[in-house]
Design brief:
With 126 residues, the chain is an all-alpha fold. It is 77% helix and 0% strand. It has 2 domains: 68 residues; 57 residues, no CATH class.
């Protein structure tokens, strides 16, 4: 091979090597930038989710605080407590009985279970 062919091959090899190094360097920088960008997006989503959850829990706290002072809610709670103890004394384990009545044996489909107002027997749900 002539000297000019060797020089041309050497120049071509150096150019290929330079392009390869530049490409790898660019890929590395791009990857780091992409990871950093995604990390910032994830932090932003996390912060927004935290804010929304806090707002949601605060609204629940406010709802419970307001409703805990309502006379009708207090009366219903007392009646439920008495009914719960009545079931326990006269029939058996109230948790199991009420779960079966409201969930397992409830004739209404999912999403309409709240429509059950009376259990079979003398126990009424109000």
């Amino acid at each position: 091979m002539k000297l000019s062919g060797k020089i041309l091959s050497l120049v071509l090899l150096i150019n290929i090597l330079a392009v390869s190094i530049i490409t790898l360097f660019t890929i590395d920088i791009s990857s780091k930038a992409l990871i950093e960008s995604n990390a910032k997006k994830l932090q932003a989503v996390s912060k927004k989710s935290e804010l929304l959850l806090n707002q949601y829990f605060n609204s629940i706290d406010e709802f419970l605080l307001i409703n805990s002072k309502r006379e009708d809610i207090i009366d219903f709670t007392i009646k439920f407590k008495h009914s719960f103890h009545e079931i326990e004394e006269n029939i058996g384990e109230p948790t199991e009985i009420l779960q079966n009545a409201y969930i397992t044996n409830n004739p209404y489909p999912i999403g309409e279970k709240y429509k059950l107002f009376e259990l079979s027997g003398n126990i009424k749900i109000n």
